């Protein structure tokens, strides 16, 4: 039995974040190579897993996060509670990563991962990332009361907008392309990428498109949300710049929050490094929640290559 086959069985028997599910990895890594490392005890029972996307260009191998994927890295079984065993697991995975002949390793670990301090001691570098969450949705009125005055005013403006749950994937993608073009930017993922992800999420009953229309039935905002056992994620929101003063941004978030409450999940805005977007999310009364990226340069030249790539992308945008 291959590692992937064992991993599928593990995910069927254990609660694993949506971003680490085999079907998710098949979608976001379509056409690319993904695999998984396993840590097994003496009885061959899996005690921890590490799915990953590995890329190779010009004979240079590196591990990075797939598109639209918040977390990856090491996921430890709930059965593992002993500190010594946890350290042994992290040491095993670190050794396996070191033996892969990589030039660069980078993964964003699940929030509250117990592996972070251990991997730091083992010489891995870490970087803070922030997402924004609403953990308690039991009282929706109280949640809305926590919105900023600005967001409450936007909700008043958006009173005439209608909510629609019937938007098709093709239409959503075209709309997102249009929204990005209005900003003079290009979309960061392909039509095929989104259609595969959408179809797999629908089959797993783990996704939904929510859109807002004005009185002329024009789509002015939309979001693709996904969820797992614990959280609903505001994965891909998009808004027409033509209607930026409509209050759609506040209403779209609120409708997504309502869906999370209905499903008994907390709400995750999916953090952003953009200050304006981060400020937008915080105005909903959300709590900044830290998680960590773990990385290591095995080839120092790869750091220069990454910098050049960032500069190139900055110029394009």
Q: Topology, pairings included?
A:
Layout: H1 3-13, H2 22-28, E1 33-40, E2 46-57, E3 60-64, E4 75-76, H3 83-98, E5 104-108, H4 115-121, E6 125-134, H5 140-145, H6 149-157, E7 162-164, H7 169-182, H8 191-203, E8 207-213, E9 219-227, E10 231-239, H9 248-263, E11 266-268, H10 275-282, E12 287-297, H11 300-316
Parallel strand pairs: 3-5, 10-11
Antiparallel strand pairs: 1-2, 2-3, 2-4, 5-12, 6-11, 6-12, 7-8, 8-9, 9-10
Helix pairs in contact: 2-8, 6-9, 7-8
Question: What report would you give on this structure?
Answer:
With 317 residues, this protein is of the alpha+beta class. It folds into 2 domains: 3-130 and 290-316, 3-Layer(aba) Sandwich (Aminopeptidase), CATH 3.40.630.30; 147-284, Aminopeptidase (3-Layer(aba) Sandwich), CATH 3.40.630. The chain has helices at 3-13, 22-28, 83-98, 115-121, 140-145, 149-157, 169-182, 191-203, 248-263, 275-282, 300-316, and strands spanning 33-40, 46-57, 60-64, 75-76, 104-108, 125-134, 162-164, 207-213, 219-227, 231-239, 266-268, 287-297. Strands 1, 2, 3, 4, 5, 6, 7, 8, 9, 10, 11 and 12 form a 12-stranded mixed β-sheet that branches. A hairpin with a 3-residue loop joins strand 9 (219-227) and strand 10 (231-239). It is globular, with a radius of gyration of 21 Å.
